[in-house]
Write a structure and sequence with these properties.
α7 packs antiparallel against α8. The chain has a five-stranded mixed beta sheet. It is an alpha/beta fold.
Length: about 290
Amino acid sequence: VMVSMATEGEWLREFLMEHNMDRFLQTKEGHGGSLLLTPLFFYIMMMPLSVFLVPAVIDFIRKPQGELTGFCLITISVIILIFSISSTKLPNYVSPALPFGAIVVGQYISNLNTVNKSTCLWLLILLVISLAVPIAISQAALEVVLPSDWLLTIGFPLGVLTGIFFIWKQRLLAGVTSIMLSLVVTVVVLFYTMVPRIDKQNPVQMSIQSIDAEGNFAAYYIFNPAFSFYLKKEIKVFEEVSELEAFIYQNERVTVFTRSSVLDDLKQLPLNTILTAKDLFEKTKTVVLQEK
């Protein structure tokens, strides 16, 4: 309430309309996609426990028991359905469903008395996925990824293999713990080694030192919103070239942010390109221009 009063209702309007209603009705920042994208996000974010999700659901359908499991499955379904039909799709949107997914898997594992062929099949799928991680890193076409970086993730498949051994010996708790710990350790190792190197390839990090922080900022059509966070200044967005041109002539030391897909629209403006770089984990390219 106090924030809304201090901003004269602007914060509340932006939060409810721009970042909720508009994101549901329109694709923002190019983050659209298939209806299957949201369930895929959920499955990946539940890894490695997601390998137990399908057998857990099948088991519940065959033998419906436990109101808690049913409630969790309904909650997961509703969350995934809502964000599947949303125009904007991002992985973090399904985060509220993760605790419910963990409860479903936990209930299934706690009631699993013996390891059957179906369980073994899903565990083998997890092993294949875990082996794909170091292979993918070793083949990554990124300058910041070193040839030896695959060793940083070798603990994950080793932990999965150890977990499968324990589970095969009917020691479910030890098996699941081994699998989970191997992923946690791998994520922590990557976070402090490879991730900082990759983050330096972010267009924001690459250009922030070259930008006049005391100047004026504008964006044409669409831009990387991370610039707003780092610059801590208003970035006016223009959708008409004539309006952007007027802003440039009315202000000094102007920096313009945009995407390469619309760069041709700005050819006639007095701007120099200081950076063109691919956005991390996106298909788009960010372009930073400064007034001549």
